[in-house]
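Researcher: We're reviewing a set of sequences before deciding which ones to prioritize for further study. For each one, I'd like a predicted 3D structure that I can look through quickly. This is DUF1062 domain-containing protein. If possible, include the structure in token form so it fits the rest of the review sheet.
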Amino acid sequence: MNAQKRNIDVWLIYRCVECDSTYNLTILSRTKPELIKKDLFSKFSENDEKLSWEYAFSSEIGRKNGVELDYSSVEYEILHDDILINEILDAEGEVVAFKIRTHFEFGLKLSSVIRFCLGVSSNLLNQMIEAEAIFVSEGCLLKKRKVKDGDIVFVNKEKLRNMYIFRGML
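Model: Here's the predicted structure for DUF1062 domain-containing protein, in token form for your review sheet.
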């Protein structure tokens, strides 16, 4: 954070681990302090780690800075309840819903998360998508969609059961 007369600049400063050069990613530029919410201003002043991570993974901030953020080396862990297809088929109701929670959006494919959590192959997930047994509320193509906080994945039990029966998997 830097103050110039009555204006505030806020950056994330990146340092290359290979060449030690730095890059300033602009969060706020030439902004009047009174236009920044007090709690946000305080977090900027204190170099709040959680807030820094939020901005580091913000595709919007990357877009505004004209940079492509590379998340290929990001390590992550998927925490989930183990659930089998048979348990989904035995659950109450016509549709089973799963809500995705993430602190950061870093280009992880939703299809990868679904495959991991349900323990299914890419081929089987594709069959589930084609049979419309699994979908998201926006109707986006699951294979290309990136994970966003709050995504809800739906499984239509009847279509899943019919798919399994048709393919001789039950």
